[in-house]
Specification:
heterodimer; A: two-stranded antiparallel sheet; 8 helices; 2 strands; B: about 350 residues; eight-stranded antiparallel beta sheet; two-stranded antiparallel sheet; 12 helices; about 45% helix; about 15% strand
Chain lengths: ~180, ~350
Amino acid sequence: MNPLKCDYCDKPAVVHEVTVKNGQKNEVHLCEEHAQEAGVALPSHQPLNELLSKFVISQTSRAKATPKKPCPTCGMTYRRFRQTGNLGCPDCYQAFEEQLAPLIQRAQNGADHHRGKTPRRAGASDDRQLQIRQLVRELDEAVADEKYERAAQLRDRLRGFDPQSPGSKAVVKPDNEPHQSES
Amino acid sequence: MTMEFAAHCPWLSDDGPDTDVVMSCRVRLARNLARFPFVSRADEAQRKELCNIARQVVLSSNLAEGVIWVDLNHATARDRQLLVERHLISKNLAEADIPRAVAVSGDETLSVMVNEEDHLRMQLLAPGLRLVELVERINVVDDAIEAKVDYAFSPRWGYLTACPTNLGTGIRLSVMMHLPALKLTSEIDRVRRAAKDLHLAVRGYYGEGSESAGDFYQISNQVTLGSSEQDLLREFDQRVLPRIIEYEQHARRMLVDDNATLLDDRIHRALGTLRSARLLGAEEAMKLLSRLRLGVHLGRLPDLDITAINRLLLQVQPAHLQTYVAADLNSEQLREARATLMRQTLQ
């Protein structure tokens, strides 16, 4: 079998990236030169986290159109984030969510939802934490099953839990649908 | 500032599971306070306020015995370097030029860095492989702090961190592994490649950006989002690390069985050099001490004590050496002092 060629030139590709989003498979193949240009192939002794930071920065250039508006809370611009790799404040995650989501997924091995600990003060009660986890789980399943309408509803309900959005209130009602037991 | 460093650096002892390969383990959590910009975007007043809040919270929360607060802006460069060498603060925090601090427990197992990349970076250290215990303990520390402050958190992204590579759990599990046999048998690159495939970071002795010295490698999880703390722990502690430990132990057995003369030659040459040299660089000293550590764990150097070797690994570092001789030394004087210390200790 012939080796795969780089997407940008005729040299053999040394970096291969396959992502699946919304059921669509997307492949990227890059030669060493173009991979380095994109910040993904660096000398092997480069610490992985540095590589990842560069990866995060480079990925943003391929992400959706750069938002012009700065974060309303701290004034951080997306362009500046691209330069430094650091966000300005917790609200930046909401301000730049559309652009950040795909690059977080890439940096975090495909993950795009938190599944760990929830602060008690932010989450108020264990019930609330359980509800959040349940919603996240259902959202994952809905996306996996390509039930996008259901996913959008779940996402909106999750947003109601977000302690970062001032004035937001939990809008979770008792759910009559069967739940999977929390393992 | 008086910083009394007794000899109880936690990872110097050989008292822990798998200490022949895992010198020490560490758990770190990254946390930020809600309603504050991240450190790099905060102004001077906000950074000072963050230090004040952290001081109040940490000192009033009974997190551990004998917690001391170190205002790093008032600490000498050598004291800051001492903290780096003891793995209690990062190089970045030591060298930064902003209001910053660290709280350290009396037994030096717990440290809470303030105004590193994130507002709070709390870590626990222990000798050997005890990550399960450390994860439990850091959770208690985190709860105690969280009872007094609001963390920046979102249900989708979890604990919000300045860099998205720490997002979600904000947890970093790491081990300082001593892999001399894999190095001697040139198998170490296979470990590096395997670690990369498993989304692990392999770093040097001082973490981010440092080279491996003396066959010591810091290995940590890279993914922080999408799995619970317990799942990340299980994967790292029960699936990944036992394989690397077994790989190193196997390489050691092979050396003993197939190449004992070569092994003993390396070990005794190292001892000979350390007992005779008049000038020693830090890197060379660590490389030679690494051989002694291997020799002791394989029973080839019955007269040497492993704790003494672990202590020397710390004492050969510049700030510790200067504190030991109570003088500021230039690099040539450091090399001489290092060689003298070795001759005195290993005779």
